[in-house]
Structures are given as C-alpha cells and as structure tokens.
Amino acid sequence: MAIKDFFQKKRKYATIPSEQTKREIPEGIMSKCPKCGTIQYSKELGKHLKVCTSCGFHNRLNAMERIEFTLDDGRIFEYDRDMISEDPLEFPDYVARTAKSMESTGLRDAVVTGEGTLGGFPVVVAVMSFDFLGGTLGSVVGEKITRAIETAIQKQYPLIIFSTSGGARTHESILSLMQMAKTSAALAKFSAGGGFYISVITEPTYGGVSASYAMLGDVIIAEPGARFGFAGPIVIEETIRQKLPEGFQTAEFNMKHGQLDKVVHRKDLRFTLTKLLELHTVRPNKEASANG
C-alpha cells in the first residue's frame, strides 16, 4: 500500500462529523455533570450512586432509585400506591400535567411511602421525587406522609423521610398549605409517643416542605450541596435588595449556621442511617419473633 493511500484511509476512519456522532449515540448512554461538565457513561455514574466522580456533585435521584440505593435489597412494601390527586379547584392544565408526570415517572404522585428494612432494622419511609411536578406538596403527598407516620406510630417503627421539593402545590392552593399543619401534627403525636424520626434533606428542598416535616426530625441530615430553605435565594435578594453570601442555603452553609446535624455523602448514607438506628432503636430479636 502506498503511503498516500494509507493516510487517506486513516483519515476516512478518524474523521467523523459531530452531528453524525450525536445521532449514533443512543439517548441515556452518556451523562454530563451539571456542575463540572464532565461526561461519563450513565452506567458508570449509576455504580457511584449518581455522584460525579470528578467533582463529587450529587445528581438528583428519583424515589425508586433512592429506595434501591437505601433499603436492604432495594425492597419496599409500598403503602397507598393507588392514591391519586383530584382537581378540586379545576386549575387549568392540572389534570393534563399530572397525567404527563404519571406517564414519565411511573409514579402516582410526588412521594412513595412504605416499609422495609435498613441494616436489618424495620423502618417506615417516605421518599419524595422531584421529577413529579417538582416534588410539590399537594393533598396526596400530605395524606400519604401522614398515613405513613400513623403506621410508624402503630407499629412502633422508626421513621425516615427523604425530602426534595419546590414547595407547596399551587394547583391546590389552601388545600396544599393545609398539609403542612397535618403532617406536623402527626409528627408531634409520633414524637410524644417516643418515636424516632430521621429527616434526610436532598437537592432541592424549599417552601412548605422545608417549613414543615423536613425540619422536624430528631436528627436532620443532608447530602452535600443540597439547597434548602423557605424562599429561594433569588426571591430573597429581590426582597431585601442585598447580595446573599456565597453558598447561601447549601447544606454546608446551613450546617455552619446550626440548621443541620450532619452533611453526609451519599456513599456513606446507608451506613450513617444504620448507625443512627443502632443508637436510637432496638434491633428486632429474630428468634423471639419466630417464637411469637
């Protein structure tokens, strides 16, 4: 083969139009980090619990991913699975938007509740999902969480709530805001009975959720970089007409100012939750249970 022909052939295989490359890579194969821009294989990112291996950015998890990563064997006995939101105010497009979120997420609303085990300890969990209407707090979310709390009271199980939310659900107006009082009252009853509640705050948690059950835990922990507060920073800056400090409302900032007990990397979350359960609850005696 002539040298000229060799280089021509090499160029043929080395030069690939960028648009063609984009078309040939199936959607979902690669993921780009929103923080540092690093491109990684989605499967590899999943092996690291969706934490960027370059900068440590914690990508959002949906409810089912969170359950898979957290509970023993990723298994949950789900409560109130078929509960769905009505449209009490006949809010424009609410029914259509809810149906679209159901189809895209496979969920019925923005929270999954149920029971499982974590490190061998039976627990009641409520896991919010931001991909369902921004994780907004509506009547179904409030009702499911309240029922989960009541079940934890009845069974005397510890309670863990994973929060992520854009706030109260505008489409339900005052009915949404009522959920703050309802869930808070249920937690007060749970606490009075000696229940142990761990609140886990994830990115982002705002509005009515942060102003109710997210900040009522006996222990409150958050993932690195998770932002939480009542109003968002843009609203606050426009209201007070002042520049906010760098990192305002991040988990690290809130930890420094006494709003958290601990910031926990996702890879350490199962271990941390298990240690908290060991310190505050009693592991079931399997032999005693088997004997009735």
Q: Could you give a quick summary of the protein structure above?
A:
The protein is 40% helix and 17% strand. The protein has 292 residues and is an alpha/beta fold.
Please provide a written account of the structure.
The structure is a single chain. This protein has 292 residues and is of the alpha/beta class. It has two domains: 43 residues, no CATH class; 224 residues, Alpha-Beta Complex (2-enoyl-CoA Hydratase, Chain A, domain 1). 40% of the residues lie in helices and 17% in strands. It contains twelve helices and ten strands. A hairpin with a 2-residue loop joins strand 4 and strand 5. Helix 6 packs parallel to helix 7. The protein is globular.
Question: What level of helicity do the residues show?
Answer: 40-55%
Write the CATH architecture name of the largest domain.
Alpha-Beta Complex
Number of strands: 10
- Number of distinct helices: 12
Please report which band the strand proportion falls in: under 5%, 5-15%, 15-25%, 25-35%, 35-45% or over 45%.
Answer: 15-25%
Report the radius of gyration as a whole number of Å.
23 Å
How many domain modules? 2
Mean pLDDT: 90
Between the first and last Cα atoms, what is the distance in angstroms? 83 Å
- Highest-level CATH class of the largest domain: Alpha Beta
Could you name the CATH homologous superfamily of the largest domain?
2-enoyl-CoA Hydratase, Chain A, domain 1
| Low-pLDDT runs | 10-17, 287-292
CATH topology of the largest domain, anyone? 2-enoyl-CoA Hydratase, Chain A, domain 1
Shape field: globular
Largest sheet: 8 strands, mixed
Provide the succession of SSEs.
HHEEHHEHEEHEHEHEEHHEHH
Helix and strand content put the structural class at: alpha/beta
